[in-house]
Recover the amino acids of this structure.
């Protein structure tokens, strides 16, 4: 990544706005890029194959047009936007696409993706819905199938050593993201939520080693800062699914809040859990993606036998982040038509109440057009927090 | 709360068969029997979902299944779902989510709050379960989220969640290369269910009885297939409107003699009708396929409206949750649990081999093509229910793909050189839009205008063909 101007964050902004810029360059150099959606796709296997994982994102400023001729409007608007941009050839530099069983919309639209896009490689990874020993064994077998399918595509075998190396470099990536989150702990935070989400979004469009280099440079620049880019204000946690456009975070920060923590898919949900080192790498990946990625799509049994115990177990990580980042309030930001998250709203509300963190629940449609309506509600919430 | 207001009772749909007409009382009797069982406390009651291939296990353990989707459908058909949907919304649940689940959660929350059934609950209401069996599949997210949400209001009721995946169709993969580990996993999940039920009921599984029930279900599957194939007759003796009734024994009564006997009677009735040349409609002009989507339960009269235009529905993809076992390429086994797992995989991969053979095809599209030919179909009708992604996402694409790869209607056009040329065009299709039980999404006038326009299209194709 070539910088321009004196700040690495300016470079980040440029690559954020022209998403896929570096990927296109890499494609022209003869590299294979494999697109993916959702935090359930084991990136380590893609990296180990020699392909570059590239997170397909949507665009809240781009009206969904071609996509709606092929896919129902009852699909979650974030995913519809990803599909729409893809069928409009925004990601024509990709060589393939991996879609996991992240939700019904992903499963039911797999054929629409695979028949509508001209990529030579498509693969669906089935993710178990439960979390126990038999599901880990099943998932390991499913990941081996994915590995073999990639091996056929790239024409070389993926060795245990390749996988171990990829696991190491992706864990390093997560360590660096963790370091960036550390800058959020000061009050006001040294890095704004907008800057952090932009950086991570750009990182997910780069080869993992380049992303690591980018995060190092961002860290080094933030360390030099003497002043926070945002004013001191209520410290906000954003709870929800994938938030790959920064407008909501920017809005909160414009209105005087500081976004200091999150549980989002392109944030803590994805970057905080690491893969265990040693042992069989595929088994370790199965454990990481099934046990540690805390997605509502995975059913986690109520072992406590009480509702209070159940929500403490299911949403406990949110409480940990709220404490660690000294959060004053949380915004549960969900997309319309999202069944996995949507059915958890009453339980999540109860959980926030139990940890005394005020909550604002917003349902949105992944469009820049709704930001005006959200402004009023967020402003009132921030005023209430004081 | 506003939800106390009940909606206007709909007019009853006219059925073509005696068998379909017998379903209403049968469901009512079933609901009543669950309430009685609850009061007596002799048998355990389980909330659960259809299409999980676990009915045999439940019945072998004398557990009474309460089909929560069925109850939500009843609320919808009686136009009495709105008050439960509103109650769910008041808890923070979005109306965009599965409305079956919203209706069920709203009902549960209300019943638990009152400590008794909500006022005027449809057919006496839905009994409180002893436990809930949810299911994570690759067809429906709400199946593993619904009971988890309901448990907030009845935390003493445990959940067992079974995972039932199947290999998704992928052009570069033979499902047989992976299904051994799918089978192994499903067997473990089903054995886990047995262990859970043994713990909850204090009884041991009787595997001989289970084997008998699995055998009964298998025989019922084949009988249903034979019965439904009779609908290929011209005129068609039974349409999709009736099949939305006869789905009850398929989906809610499997592994019972009653379900088997029901289809013995239906088969006989259809054979008699065929012998008399009696169709669903008096003068059958168009044969349509219900090609996808759950029905709008409050608007089943729309099938009568189609009938009034001379349109019959000899086949539907919805709720035909069986396939002929003798045509399934699944291994033989004496172990009933292993057989259930194979049957599950056999059902979901039934069209895979055929789909592979046709360029551009896919299992759902392949099934449409096969049935269009077998049932002599003139047009395809689908229903997009806004709240259900499981069955409704992908339908538009299926119609697109169908139009692209399958053009069965020969017509003559004027060619470039002024000569008549024979070309082929695709089958006409219609997409209706509303919901499964949320009546606020439905407009009878708009729906019927769409149907009228569709019938005109079919008529013009007929006229072209005749010319």
């Amino acid at each position: 990544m070539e910088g321009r101007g004196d700040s690495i964050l300016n470079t980040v902004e440029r690559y954020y706005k022209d998403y896929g810029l570096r990927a296109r360059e890499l494609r022209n150099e003869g590299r294979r890029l494999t697109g993916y959606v959702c935090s359930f796709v084991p990136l380590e296997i893609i990296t180990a194959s020699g392909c570059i994982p590239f997170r397909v994102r949507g665009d809240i400023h781009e009206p969904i047009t071609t996509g709606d001729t092929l896919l129902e409007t009852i699909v979650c608007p974030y995913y519809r936007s990803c599909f729409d941009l893809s069928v409009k050839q925004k990601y024509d530099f990709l060589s393939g696409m991996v879609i996991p069983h992240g939700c019904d919309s992903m499963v039911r639209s797999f054929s629409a993706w695979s028949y509508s896009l001209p990529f030579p490689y498509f693969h669906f990874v089935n993710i178990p819905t439960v979390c126990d020993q038999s599901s880990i064994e099943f998932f390991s077998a499913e990941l081996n199938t994915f590995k073999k399918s990639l091996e056929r595509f790239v024409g070389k075998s993926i060795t245990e050593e390749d996988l171990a190396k990829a696991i190491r470099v992706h864990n390093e990536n997560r360590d660096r993201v963790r370091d960036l989150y550390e800058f959020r702990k000061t009050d006001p935070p040294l890095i704004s939520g907008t800057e952090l989400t932009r950086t991570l979004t750009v990182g997910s469009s780069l080869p993992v080693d380049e992303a690591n280099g980018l995060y190092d440079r961002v860290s080094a620049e933030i360390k030099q800062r003497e002043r926070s880019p945002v004013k001191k204000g209520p410290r906000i946690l954003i709870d929800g699914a994938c938030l790959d456009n920064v407008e909501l975070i920017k809005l909160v920060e414009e209105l005087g809040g500081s976004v200091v923590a999150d549980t989002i898919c392109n944030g803590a949900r994805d970057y905080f859990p690491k893969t265990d080192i040693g042992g069989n790498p595929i088994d370790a990946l199965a454990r990481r993606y099934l046990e540690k990625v805390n997605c509502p799509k995975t059913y986690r049994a109520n072992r406590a036998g009480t509702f209070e115990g159940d929500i403490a177990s299911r949403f406990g990580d949110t409480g940990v982040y709220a404490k660690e980042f000294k959060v004053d309030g949380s915004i549960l930001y969900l997309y319309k038509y999202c069944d996995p998250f949507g059915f958890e709203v009453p339980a999540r509300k109860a959980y926030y109440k139990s940890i005394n963190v005020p909550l604002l629940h917003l349902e949105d449609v992944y469009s820049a057009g709704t930001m005006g309506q959200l402004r009023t509600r967020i402003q009132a919430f921030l005023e209430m927090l004081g | 709360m506003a939800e106390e207001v009940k909606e206007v009772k709909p007019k009853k749909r006219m059925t073509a068969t005696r068998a379909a007409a017998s379903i209403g009382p049968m469901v009512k009797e079933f609901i009543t029997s669950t309430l009685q069982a609850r009061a007596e406390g002799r048998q355990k009651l389980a909330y659960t979902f259809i299409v999980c291939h676990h009915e045999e296990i439940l019945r072998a353990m004398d557990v009474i299944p309460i089909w929560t989707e069925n109850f939500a459908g009843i609320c919808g058909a009686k136009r009495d779902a709105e008050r439960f949907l509103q109650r769910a919304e008041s808890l923070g649940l979005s109306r965009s989510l599965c409305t079956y689940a919203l209706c069920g959660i709203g009902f549960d929350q209300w019943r638990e709050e009152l400590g008794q059934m909500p006022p005027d609950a449809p057919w006496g209401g839905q009994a409180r379960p002893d436990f809930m069996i949810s299911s994570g599949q690759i067809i429906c997210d709400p199946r593993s989220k619904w009971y988890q949400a309901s448990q907030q209001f009845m935390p003493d009721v445990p959940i067992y969640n079974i995972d039932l995946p199947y290999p998704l169709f992928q052009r570069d993969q033979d499902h047989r290369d992976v299904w051994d580990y799918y089978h192994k996993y499903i067997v473990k999940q089903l054995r886990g269910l047995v262990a859970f039920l043994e713990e909850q009921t204090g009884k041991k599984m009787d595997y001989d009885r289970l084997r008998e029930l699995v055998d009964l279900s298998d025989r019922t599957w084949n009988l249903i297939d034979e019965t439904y194939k009779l609908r290929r007759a011209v005129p068609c003796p039974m349409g999709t409107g009736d099949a939305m009734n006869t789905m009850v024994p398929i989906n809610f009564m499997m592994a019972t003699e009653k379900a088997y006997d029901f289809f013995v009677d239906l088969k006989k009735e259809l054979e008699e009708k065929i012998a008399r040349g009696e169709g669903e409609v008096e003068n059958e002009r168009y044969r349509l396929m219900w090609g996808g989507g759950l029905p709008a339960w409050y608007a089943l009269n729309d099938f009568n409206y189609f009938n009034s235009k001379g349109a019959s529905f000899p086949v539907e993809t919805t709720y035909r949750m069986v396939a002929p076992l003798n045509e399934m390429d699944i291994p033989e086994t004496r172990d009933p649990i292993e057989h259930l797992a194979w049957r599950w995989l056999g059902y979901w991969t039934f069209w895979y081999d055929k789909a592979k053979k046709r360029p551009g095809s896919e299992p759902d599209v392949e099934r449409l093509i096969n049935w269009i030919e077998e049932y002599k179909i003139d047009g395809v009708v689908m229903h997009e229910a806004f709240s259900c992604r499981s069955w409704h996402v992908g339908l538009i694409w299926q119609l697109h793909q169908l139009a692209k790869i399958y053009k069965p209607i020969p017509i003559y056009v004027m060619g470039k050189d002024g000569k008549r040329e024979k070309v082929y065009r695709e089958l006409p299709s219609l997409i209706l839009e509303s919901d499964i039980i949320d009546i606020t999404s439905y407009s009878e006038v708009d729906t019927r205008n769409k149907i009228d326009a569709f019938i005109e299209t079919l008529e013009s194709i007929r006229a072209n063909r005749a010319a």
Q: What stands out?
A: The mean pLDDT of chain A is 97. Strands of chain A lie at 33-36, 52-55, 96-100, 121-125, 235-240, 258-262, 329-335, 359-364. Chain A is about 50% helix and 10% strand. Chain A touches chain B through 60 residues (CB under 8 Å).
